[in-house]
Amino acid sequence: LGPTITVGEILVEIMATTIGKGFLDAQPLIGPFPSGAPAIFIDQVAKLGAQAGIIAAVGNDDFGRLNVERLRDDGADVSAIAVSPDFPTGSAFVRYANDGTRDFVYNIARSAAGEIKLTDAAKSLITRAGHLHVMGSALSIPAVWPIINFALQDIKKRGGTLSVDPNMRKELAAGEETGRQFATLLKATDLLLPSGDELFVACPASSESEAIGKLLASGISEIVMKRGQKGSALVTKTGSISRPAFIVDEVDPTGAGDCFGATYLTCRRLGHSAEQALDYANAAGARNVTYRGPMEGTSTFRELDQFIAATPRK
Ligand code: ADP
Nearest to residue 231, comparing CAs of 191, 258, 195? Predict the structure, then answer.
């Protein structure tokens, strides 16, 4: 099968412990937690026992070591995580608004993540990989573009596949070139995993069905819509399947989509049916939001089976 790989930011996340306060309101914060959407994604793939690797860079500091040790302990290939002598590990501060939305303050561009390079270790991981997953957030880092392009060519040439999670954050740079990179990637995408309005980022249209129709016509074979507490749905050229969410008390929403995507993809790569993959992915997303910290609630198959057996659905 070959490892699933991704490229992009590794960070620590430090979060508000209250809801509705501004960033300038002094309050108890909690963290650091290992984070970065690509890192959460690859940790979840590894937890499921599948081969998983990430091309990234951290600083020569405790925040970097925290992340690398977690990923290694959870079974991910960390050989292509470079340690920058010049830049620190990036960070993100998160606060929660009363309406359920989140705001981030990111320090990525001038962190080690902004300096990701196509090292020999990265090339070696790419040449072994069977699948590339790209997080939209990683496209805000220009250094990532040539690595994705190299990986995409190499993996596709060998019959591998590409999944994309638009994962857009309003706080991250999204200039014209980021848009062009995203559009190029979409042309080669096999599996697209949008949530909320991200479908319209991928394809401007006047309705969801129009956007989906255009994306399927352009060659994407599976579109999986993440719908938070409404569960998820798969749409292909031959029809659609919806699966309900699990009922949980949400403690921290960050990371749900990353765990969902990693689990759906891994289940499909392992040969599970679409229904089974959606159920496992809904479970991985729901279980993750019951933990504070974006990577604290990544799950093994055993944990997902136990969670599914014990948790009612909507
Ligand atoms: P993203 O994090 O990318 O915005 P979602 O919020 O839709 O994506 O979360 C991804 C998946 O995780 C959902 O499709 C759902 O299965 C699960 N999930 C997320 N939040 C909850 C919740 N509060 N209750 C139950 N399931 C959830």
Answer: 195
From 164, 158, 154, select the one nearest 220 (Cα to Cα).
164
- The larger pLDDT score, comparing residue 165 to residue 101, is at 165
Atom of ligand 1 nearest to the CA of 165: 3
* Stated pTM of the model: 0.97
Q: 286 CA distance to ligand 1 centroid (A)? A: 6
Alpha helix stretches (DSSP H) within 23-138:
37-47, 62-73, 120-128
**Closest ligand 1 atom number to CA of residue 246:** 25
Residues with CB under 6 A from ligand 1: 195, 226-229, 231-232, 245-246, 248, 250, 253, 256-257, 260, 282, 285-286, 289
Ligand 1: residue whose CA is nearest its atom 19: 228
**Which of 26-30, 74-78, 139-143 reaches the highest mean pLDDT?**
74-78
Say what the alpha-carbon torsion angle 4, 8, 9, 10 is, to the nearest 10 degrees. Answer: 30
- Poorest-confidence range of 25-34, 68-77, 253-262? 25-34
CA-proximal residue: ligand 1, atom 13 (nearest): 228
Ligand 1 midpoint to CA 297 (Å): 13
Ligand 1 centroid from CA 220, angstroms: 22
- Give residue-wise pLDDT tens across range 131-157: 999 999 999 999 999 999 999 999 999
The string of pLDDT tens digits covering residues 121-132 is: 999 999 999 999
User: What are the tokens at 286?
Assistant: 């729901």
285 CA distance to ligand 1 centroid (A)? 5
List the structure tokens of 187.
Answer: 């042309």
pLDDT in tens, 237-261: 999 999 999 999 999 999 999 999 9
For the cut 70, the answer to whether the pLDDT of residue 173 exceeds it is no
Q: CA-CA distance, 276 to 185, in Å (whole number)?
A: 27
Cα of 146 from ligand 1 centre, angstroms:
31
Provide the residue type at 62 as one letter: D
Q: Ligand 1 atom 24: the closest Cα is on which residue?
A: 229
